[in-house]
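Progress narrative, work stream C.
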Amino acid sequence: LRNFIINSKGSTGFDQNYLPWKIYQYLESSNKKIIQMSDPANTLKSVKNNTEINGMISAHLRDGVAFIKFMYWFFKLDKTSELDEISLIKKLESYRRNTGFLREISFDTICGSGPNGAIIHYRATNESNRKIKKDDIILIDSGGQYLDGTTDITRSICWGTCDTKNKRLYTLVLKGLIALSRQRWPRGLIGRDLDPVARQFLWNSLNDYEHGTGHGVGAYLCVHEGPIGINRKSNIELEPGMILSIEPGFYQKHKLGIRLENLVLVKKVTNHPNESFLCFETLTSVPFQRNMLDISMLDKKEKIWLNSYHKSILDKIGPKLSSNELKWLTRQCVPITI
């Protein structure tokens, strides 16, 4: 390898984030021009082809059915039931496995109840495993690897009554997700340019979250796929065919965590004279918990988006549910009065 590098002609590009140090030393000793650059294959890989896009759409519908069945099971439980974080993790995974298409979960499920939800990358262990208590807010970040696609979804749910303060926090997070999901932008912007769109409502309430707003997602590949992202450092231009997460959050140490996450597809704006603009299409099909919302905080456009989102879930997922599951989903998707 050393001789090949030294004797090869022309300049050589390398990505300092991945190149082994020994190979870099070979490059330096070759006296050739070396150029620091991002691996071009990674950016090409992040733009999905039509087969990958269609597969991701199918995977998200299947995963949406599994997650909604889990939610129906969870909310129908008696509040005196003995539950803990690990039992919820196992139950959710069982619904994904019951699809018959799951190859494996996308990553170790994050299921943090109460104060554990405030730990951004929390993992339940036998030592940390917490009993679920009435009125707990439970942050569940999970996903599945299917042959046709990869999913990643976060929902924060309340097992009981969500108080006024927490409704306000939940709604601020949701407003950020809606704002970025609705955003249109001129082609040429990078992930860093869009990051504040999701943070604006939390910023105006003097809050923020210490993680990126979004990351790239592979098609039956890495659930965190670089180099694209939506964060303060992301300098990669967003292009049609890219799939990313939108996941704003709020965390209060030792108290609670609220995060909401959908995956989205970058698309060209159509049916408009200016087709140089881009937009997002939401892939995730799981409702937001109605009784955690402070509806008075939503403006007309946000209500329209939420109603449209819930209607699409009902239309796409409803036929795949049992009659009781469908009744429950219908109640979750009742339109908000505008």
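Work stream C, second folded protein:
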Amino acid sequence: MRPFTIGDVLCAARYLLLFEPGSRHAAARSLVQRATAADRWRAQRGRAHRCWGNGTLMAAAGLAPLPPTPPLGDPSFLDALCVMLGTLRDKAPQPDAQEMQRRAVGSSSSRRAATSSPHSSQ
């Protein structure tokens, strides 16, 4: 799937409004799978997939007639947005725990200076 924008997420949430609340998680996963497959198709063949678009969420979602964008405060739309964002979060690559620790604390050489004090026996 190509990198997504807020426009992609809003369009995908409108697409999810076509489904009953209990079916939205499956529909969101399916939408991401179609966008991913379309992106692979585009990369291999140099053109958009005829059914699923160019690999963006907006293209994959926009193939169905979408309802108009409801007000942002609409509870059903907020639910659809949460489902879509949660699906995208779950799909995102998770950083390696050791790399996260290294970024949060720094390398061991920088930690020694940070933890040494006149009262330390290091």
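Residues 97 and 103 are 10 Å apart (CA to CA). No further action is required on this item.
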